[in-house]
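DATA SHEET
Item: assembly model
Revision: 1
Owner: S.N.
Input lines:
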Amino acid sequence: MIVRLRQPRREVEMAGGRAAHAVLHDLGLSREGHLIIRNGTLVPSDTMLEEGDIVEIRPVISGG
Amino acid sequence: MSKCRSCGDAAVVDLPRHNANFCAEHLQQLCVRQVQRAIADHSMFETDARVLVAVSGGKDSLALWDMLVDLGYRADGLYIGLGIGEYSEESHRITSVFAEERGLTLHTVDLRQEHGFDIPTAARATRRVPCSACGLSKRHIFDRETIRLGYDVLATGHNLDDEAAVLLGNTIRWDVEYLTRQYPVLEAGHGFPRKVKPLVRLTEREMAAWCVVRGIDYVVEECPMAIGNRHSGYKETLNQLDERSPGTKASFYLGFLDRMVPVLRTGPDRQGAPESCPTCGAPSSSSDTACSFCRLEATASSHEPVPVRMVLNRSARRAFDAQWGEEEA
C-alpha cells in the first residue's frame, strides 16, 4: 500500500494487512496527532489497511 | 468494523478520550453540542450577536465559522494577509473560496498593503521570534477591526489542545498573571473588543475530523514559521500523555477551568490599558510612546522585504522546500 505523509510531503510503500494504529506506531507517529484517510475516506485507527490501499496520514497539530 | 457508539453504523473516527467511535453524523452532533455548551457555560454571546470570526484558512477557524453559521449565528470572517510566501497565498485562496461557496462575508486586511511590512520582514527587522511578531500583529488588527466594523464579539478558533498547551507553558513557568487571565472569554475593555473561544471543549483531532467529514478544504500544512516552536512541543508532550492515558489533556485543561480558575480569579477579566497610543489610538501602556504594533510597523516597514526562507531554521527550511519548492531561495 502507498502511505502519504506530510511535513515534509512524501510517499512510502508499506506492507498491507495491518491495523492503521500499528502503521502509526511503526512510523513513530501519535494517534492523537493524526487522522487516517484510506482511499479518500476517514477511518478509525483500528481499521485494517490492505495491499492496494492509498492511505493519507494527516497531521492535525498546528503551532500557531 | 468499528461501530458508532450512538447508532451502530460504521464509524469514521475513534475518540479515545470518549472511549468511543463515531460515524460522521454523530461526530458532528458531538462537536456541535460541545460548542453549544462552551457558548452557554461561559455566556460567550447571545443568539442575535454579530460575531466576527478570525479566520486563517486552517481547520479550526474554518470549522468554527462553519459551525456558527450552521447554528444560525450572524458570523462574518476576517482574514489577515501575513505575507508568509506561498503559505499565505494558499491560505487566502482557501478562505476566500470557503466564504464564496457559502455566500458569507469575508473582510480582509493585507499587512504589506496596509502597513508596509510582512511577518518574515517584521521578524528579521525587529529580531523577534516570527510567532511573536505574528501574534502581536494579528491581535492588534483583530481588535481594531472588530471595533471599527461594529461587531459585538471576536471569536477565535483556539481549541482544547491550544489552551492545554498554553496552560502547560504557563504552569511550567508558574506565570500566575497569565494563569489568572487564561479563560475562554475576555470581557471588552478600554479599546478592546469582547473575545471568545468557542472551541475550547474540542480537540485538534476532532476539529480536523469535522473538516474532513464536512468536506471543508483547509490548509493542512503547518505554517512554515511555526514548525518546531515551543507551543508545538507542548502539544506533542500532552499528546504523548494522552496516548498512555486518554483524556489526560482534556482533564488538565477543563479541570483547570472548573476548579482552578475560581480560585485564581476574583472577578471578570476586563482587558484594558491606561492610555492610548499617540499614533493609532489603540490601547497602550503610555500616551507618550507608540504602542507595540506601531513600533513594530515603524521598524519593519522601513526594512527591505525578507523572503520567508531566510528566517527559517534548518529543519523548517527543509520542510518548506519540500512543500513549496525553493523559488524564494
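QC remark: Strands of chain A lie at 2-5, 10-13, 18-19, 34-38, 41-43, 48-49, 54-59.
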